[in-house]
Amino acid sequence: MAAGNKFGVRFWGVRGSLPVPGPETAKYGGNTACVEVRCGDRIIIIDMGSGARNLGMALASQSPVQATVLISHYHWDHIMGIPFFNPLHDPRNRFQFYGEGRGGKGLKAILSGQMKYPYFPVGLEVFQADIKFNTIAPGHQVVNGGVKIQTAPLNHPQSSLAYRINYRGKSVVYCSDNEHQEETPDEMAELIKDCDLLIYDAAYTDDEYNGRTGNGSKIGWGHSTWDEAVKVARRLRVKDLYIFHHNPLRTDQVIDSLLRKHRKAHPNLHAAREGKLVTLL
Fold first, then answer.
1. CB under 8 Å to 48, separation ≥6 — which residues?
2. What is the largest CA-CA distance in the chain?
3. Residues 231-242, buried b or exposed e (16+ Cβ, 10 A)?
4. What does the alpha-carbon distance between residue 176 and residue 168 come to, in Å, rounded to a whole number?
5. Which of 121, 151, 180, 249 could form a disulfide with 228 if both were Cys (CB 3.0 to 4.6 A apart)?
6. What is the pLDDT, as a whole number, of residue 206?
């Protein structure tokens, strides 16, 4: 993405739970959550699932890199790409990480946990980049020049954060790993309201969520449905809705079918796809 005053979003990983490469997922992609946002010359990365590896390879030629990394939560599909993100190994680069604390531990201690015995052969100390770890809570705001980042809590086991990025009168909201409720909580509704682009977790269909198909009910698993995503987008006046965190069992063919069905209720409905660039400015 070019710099200047551009505002754009590129998807590097769109899948939930675990990577699922293969011919049946080639169109939309099999890597787990990773989204790049460019606000002028500022780079913001949301989550670092397995898709972060390809993003890192793309950024390697742009060193020195300065970027903000926003972590929604610490389930492995959202952080497994961190050890394989090449720019973290380059001493010319600088990163500001943001994420919630858990169980009395700050962000740095939590992220180091997946790179300790018996899970990984080397620790955080292997990284050569200048990395700052910022532990935040829901409601925290980050303001950097003309970029404003807002946060709100989501309904997910062990919690999760939603992020809204505002730049030059446009906005992107990232709501991955959220289970819908009868009423959208006020903090979440305020974050989403009137946004230009909403990236929303819809891992299930209504039938899958309620156990009418598949291997039992998914109530309480922490994810939403296509129908509920459309309801939220319509109620809160979202311009473009991107379904995200695709079920690992969801083939490209089924995603295409779901898009055709649900576009009747929300014409500006899309399925997040690896490599897709969405330009807002």
1. 34, 69, 71, 78, 79, 80, 81, 82, 85
2. 53
3. bbbeebebebbb
4. 24
5. 180
6. 96
- pLDDT above 60: residue 50: yes
What's the whole-model pTM score?
A: 0.96
Q: Is the pLDDT of residue 4 over 80?
A: no
Q: What's the DSSP call for residue 157?
A: T
Say what the pLDDT of residue 1 is: 52
Q: At residue 5, does pLDDT exceed 90?
A: no
- E strand or H helix that includes residue 37: strand 34-39
Q: What gap in Å lies between CA 187 and CA 215, rounded to an integer? A: 33
**Mean residue pLDDT across the chain:** 96
Helix axes 226-235, 252-262, angle to 10 degrees: 40
| CATH architecture group of domain 7-279 | 4-Layer Sandwich (3.60)
- Give the tokens for residue 73: 């939560």
Q: Provide the terminal-to-terminal Cα distance of the chain, rounded to the nearest Å.
A: 12
